[in-house]
Amino acid sequence: MPVVPLRVVAASLRFAIAEAPAVIEVAGDVSTLLGYSAAALVHGEVSLPDCIHHDDADVAAALFGPTLPPGEQIDNLRVRQANGRIRCIKAIYTKRRLDDGSIELILQLQDAKSLPRTMEDAANTANFRAMMENTNDFIYFKDRNHVFTGASQTLVTLCHPAEQWTDLLGLTDYDVFPEYYADIYYRLEKQVFSGLSAAYEEQEFLTKDGSRRGWVDNRKYPIRNEAGEMIGLFGVARDITERIEAEHRLKESEYFFRDSQLAANIGSYKFDIASDRWSSSEVMERIFGIGADYPRTLYGWLALVHPEDRQMMQDYITTNVLKDHESFNKEYRIQRNLDGETRWVLGLGQLRFDADGAPCWMLGTIQDVTVRKQLDAELAHYRQNLEALVDLRTQALNKAKNAAEAASVAKSAFLANMSHEIRTPLNAITGMAYLIRRGGLSLQQTEQLGKLESASTHLLETINAVLEISKIEAGKYVLEETALSVESVIGNVVSIMQNRVDAKGLKLRTELCPLPCRLLGDATRLQQALLNYISNAVKFTEHGELVLQLEMLEDKADSVCLRFSVRDTGIGIVPETITRLFDAFEQADNSTTRLYGGTGLGLAIARKLARLMGGEAGAQSTPGIGSTFWFTACLRKDVSGASPVSEERLDDSASTIKQKFAGCRVLLAEDEPINCEIAQMLLEDAGLLADIAQDGIEAVEKAASNDYSLILMDMQMPRMDGLDATRQIRQFERQANTPILAMTANAFAEDRSRCLQAGMVDFIAKPVEPALFYSVLLKALSALDKP
Predict the structure, then answer these.
(1) For a tag on the chain, would you pick the N or C end, based on fewer CB atoms within 10 A?
(2) What is the DSSP string of 544-574?
(3) DSSP letter for each residue of 198-221
(4) Handedness of CA 255, 260, 265, 268 (dihedral sign)
């Protein structure tokens, strides 16, 4: 006997259907059935057609469409309740047309689960219970309204909540499965109830704990009563997950094999020897330029082989492979069927044999090796011509090397000549200015002479900067490494800059850290870098102070790393400009050059000097607040314990010469009259007597016949230059120990080296700065005076 629920949950609705269905009247338990109130349906707040499941659009069309089926109709549908869940409904309805042309729909909705079962529950049958509890398949029974009347215990693993198969009785798929899966399963049931003798589909499933996802072959069949009426269905779902996964793996393997062939441009084939037929992969078809209709026979393959290789390949496959049973391994040419293009291929193949030992088929690959063959040919060509190519390349490199060396020599010669040609008259200007100032001047003349000296000093600084940067970039710059006192270097810098600082009303102070010991380094270059920084600070600061700071960043066993910085309260620089300030000929902007002057080389030189000393240079700045320019230098510790040479103040050198060496005889070799006059007056002011030689030959003659305490030698002179003259003078016994000083406008480091190699002992660059001139003279005379 069918099981009868205690109460049928049902509701009746009357619709007027014109352009859109409108609910006229509602009766019954619509709130339990749909979750909405009758008033919400009548007032149009909820639309029943919108609540019908999208897969039941056919049922909705029959209900609310213009067709008028005869008599009472019964159908099943799904509606979405107010809580979002799907409910299976039995719909009973009639439709008729009214006098005004509209359609009246009388619709009764019944909850499928509350209806009497159209077939008996399997729980009431012992045989069914035994089958349900012991089968490995997913088996289930449902009545005409999609309600479970029986299920196997295995199905419980997919349903929630359920522990025993009997828990499923009276429920629908939407009560025990996620909606996605319930939709899938319901779809087949609609097909069965629509009249199909069987409906089946491979469908996905998910265990209720989410631990396993799989596939089933789901088949559903109708159940009819003795009168032939369909009263329900039964289904058998067999787990085919292993088969599906194996098929997926096979497909992935096929995709991988195909993609690998495509990537490597390697095709494959299978040749059935008995039937004289071969099959090929997509890549092989592309290599040979053939389509699906190309004759795949041995003759068809030979037709694709290049005519010049065809007989060779026919002999090879018939004799070596098919007769002697060798593996197929051959490179040969083909002519593509598509366009006649000649390509090189590598064919590989392995024979397979039948029970009698006769070859039955061959499996192999085809690879397009045209590019490799072309590269091999080019390589062979290059090997044959390698010696000639190397010779040509060597000649080209030598030519480029000679051109580069010639350009370097020309540049050096040009800079040397320009230096000499500018320094020579500049020496006359500065020297004469010095002598004129000593002669006594009016206030106006003193001011005018100061401007002249300032201009000549600026010109000299520009020349020195250009030469300095060119020497560094040419790699010809060598730092000295002698004992030095960093504190003394900083003291000299402060002394040199103090007058300029005072003239602008600024303050200059130092912040020095204690140093562990004496150091080795190039005091001149340290001083030069600091002077560049402080000169810039003075130039761009109108009020406030300058701070020269020394910090020790690192103290190692054999060296220290120092940080020198100059902090000002000047105009400052915008951040995006700082990065290029240390490039040669760069300034903050074009207006800076007009307002403050300068070549833009000072900072570039400072950075290059810092890097030569194993450090770096940089800056931080805030516009309107000020800037800090810094550089670091790594100096070795002086393990010998030697102290820096104590130098006498430059201003006292002339007086000392006059006191100790007055009346000493000096030979001055100088061809330029004005420079000669200046040097002679400087010598005489220090109490020294000067003999004049206007060229190298005259200097050699005078040195051969006279004793001199000191010889000043210009490098560039007519008839014989200063270097050759020095070499000859050194041959005279009386002049073997006489100090010979170069006094020249040639200011390059290599010029100094050439002077020392020729026999000179020191170097005075033009234009001559009197204090430095006297200091070098005093040093040379004092060395000679020592026992």
Answers:
(1) C
(2) SEEEEEEEEEEE-SSEEEEEEEEE--SS---
(3) -EEEEEEEE-TTSS-EEEEEEEEE
(4) negative
Select from 222, 221, 215, 213 the least CA-distant residue to 238.
215
Beta strands 328-335 and 213-224 are unpaired
Q: How far apart are CA 181 and CA 489, in angstroms?
A: 89
Tokens at 390, concatenated: 């190397």
What CA–CA distance (Å, rounded) separates 750 from 471? 10
Q: Is 358 helix (H, G, I), strand (E, B) or coil?
A: coil
Instruction: Establish how many alpha carbons lie within 13 A of residue 235's alpha carbon, considering only the half-sphere containing its beta carbon.
Output: 31
Residue count of the chain, please give it: 787
Give the tens place of pLDDT for each residue, 249-258.
887 776 666 6
What are the C-alpha distances in Å from 116 to residues 217, 234, 385? Answer: 30, 18, 99
Q: How far is CA 257 from the centre of its chain?
A: 34
> In the structure, what pLDDT confidence band is assigned to residue 688 with cuts at 50, 70 and 90?
very high
**Within 439-507, where are the H helices?**
443-473, 486-503
Angle at 591 between CA 587 and CA 596, to 5 degrees: 75
Instruction: Render 692-708 in DSSP notation, one character per residue.
Output: EESSHHHHHHHHHH---
- As given in the structure block, the two tokens for residue 85 are 């869940």
Query: How far is the CA of 315 from the CAs of 277, 318, 319, 320, in angstroms?
Result: 19, 5, 6, 8
C-alpha span between 114 and 11 (Å, rounded)? 12
Contact 530, 492 (CB under 8 A): no
From the list 106, 118, 122, the residue with the least C-alpha distance to 147 is 118
CA angle 356, 357, 360 (to 5 degrees): 95
Q: Which helix (H) or strand (E) holds 277?
A: strand 277-280
- Tell me how far apart the alpha carbons of residues 527 and 535 are, in angstroms, rounded to a whole number: 12
- 634: which 2 tokens? 């790594």
Beta bridge partners of 631: 564, 617
| pLDDT value at 215 more than 60 | yes
**pLDDT at position 212, please?**
79
Residue 229 backbone zone (phi > 0: left; psi -120 to 50: alpha; other: beta): beta
Are 498 and 508 in contact by the 8 Å Cβ rule? The answer is yes
Q: Determine contact, residues 313/297, Cβ cutoff 8 Å.
A: no
Identify the H or E element spanning 96: strand 86-97
Please classify residue 299 by burial: count the beta carbons closer than 10 Å to its beta carbon, then call 0-12 exposed, 13-18 middle and 19+ buried: exposed
Q: Where are the alpha helices (DSSP H) in 65-221?
A: 126-134, 173-176, 179-193
What confidence tens digit (pLDDT) does each residue in 300-351 have? Answer: 999 999 999 999 999 999 999 999 999 999 999 999 998 999 999 999 999 9
For residues 51 and 34, give the distance between their C-alpha atoms in angstroms, rounded to a whole number.
Answer: 9
Q: What is the pTM of this model?
A: 0.40
Q: How many CB atoms lie within 10 A of CB 256?
A: 10
Rounded to whole angstroms, the Cα distance separating 729 from 669 reads 12
